[in-house]
Amino acid sequence: MPALLDPMFWLGQDGPFGAAVLIGVVVIIFIETGLLFPFLPGDTLLFTAGVIAAQAAPAVDIWTLTPCAAAAAFLGGQCAYLIGRRLGPALFKKSDARFFKQRYLTSSHEFFVKYGAKTLVIGQFIGVVRTFAPVVAGISGMPYRTLVIFSALGSAAWGVGLPLVGYFLGNIPFVEQHVELIVLAIACLSTIPVIISAARTLLSRGRLGDVSN
């Protein structure tokens, strides 16, 4: 696993936040969710932090970790939404722009009208989605009140749920002895929805191309 994606690189005894696990979790979660940087170990970081909290004389208390992680995810989502609201009009100003065409803005708005709430809650558990969904919500003009409600739900479920899973499994001998393997499995599982979505998109484009020909 690349160093940046390895939670123990950040939270291990010799890591940058080895002596300040709570600060490390909050900083990394906020950067991943709020500053458009999806290449950080959000899911595995929270699980590993929960495992650390389950150890004797832990570096972080689980009842402090969970609300702080949820708050960091929520605030990150607000930051990403504001970035989208700020940059969206400028990016889509020209109707004939090469990459940011206004029809993309229209389609993203229609998507968030139909599926925005579900995306903000369920997408919190999918790395790339939780990073960019609030940005696209801001670009497409999702009402801020709607964003706050469902972003709070998704952030609470993710920020509290994953550390608790790690915490309650942390004292199981198999988990203690195979943390790296379990972390790798979680990282792989979190990418499956993205791979499936990309495959469906490619298949649908292929079918459209066949019909047009």
Could you characterize what this model shows?
The protein is mainly alpha-helical and 213 residues long. It has one domain (3-207). The protein has 9 helices and no strands. The protein starts with 6 loop residues before the first helix and ends with a helix. Belongs to the DedA family.
Topology:
Blueprint: H1 7-11, H2 21-34, H3 42-53, H4 62-91, H5 102-122, H6 127-139, H7 144-169, H8 173-177, H9 179-212
Helix pairs in contact: 2-3, 2-4, 3-7, 3-9, 4-6, 4-7, 5-6, 5-7
Q: What oligomeric state best describes the polypeptide chains here?
A: single chain
Which class do the helix and strand fractions yield? mainly alpha
Instruction: Quote the average pLDDT.
Output: 81
SSE ordering? HHHHHHHHH
Total domain modules: 1
DSSP helical segment count: 9
Radius of gyration: 19 Å
Question: What share of residues are in beta strands?
Answer: under 5%
What spatial form do the alpha-carbon principal axes imply? elongated
Uncertain runs: none
Estimate the helix proportion, in percent: over 70%
The number of E-state strands comes to 0
Largest sheet: number of strands, sense, barrel closure: none
Measured distance between first and last alpha carbons: 43 Å
Family: Belongs to the DedA family.
Subcellular location: Cell membrane
Keywords: Cell membrane, Membrane, Transmembrane, Transmembrane helix
Transmembrane segments: 20-40, 147-169, 181-203
Give a nutshell description of this structure.
The protein is mainly alpha-helical and 213 residues long. The protein contains nine helices and no strands. It has one domain.
